[in-house]
Specification:
about 80 residues, alpha+beta, two-stranded antiparallel ribbon, binds zinc ion
């Protein structure tokens, strides 16, 4: 996992960047979520993509927000990193 993560909040759906390692706190709704390892099921943080470079992460965050605004959803676009 790279340091800077672009995350979609499971509670409010807003996208933001974090460099937290274990727990993410949404800056919009203040909800905290733990990061999960792959294959774990349940409520978790949606990591869209991760980066080593904070500028790249911020750029991606902007793009993701635009996509969300334009299309209403990110699914079916190959957008998720998996
Ligand atoms: Zn939120």
């Amino acid at each position: 996992m790279k340091k800077y993560k672009v995350i979609k909040c499971i509670n409010c759906g807003k996208i933001s960047v974090t460099f937290a390692e274990k727990v993410f706190r949404c800056t919009y709704c203040n909800k905290t979520c733990k990061f999960i390892k792959k294959r774990q099921i349940g409520l978790s943080v949606n990591i869209l993509k991760s980066f080593d470079n904070p500028r790249q992460a911020t750029e991606f965050c902007k793009i993701a927000k635009d996509k969300l605004k334009n299309k209403g959803k990110l699914a079916n676009s190959g957008f998720y990193e998996n």
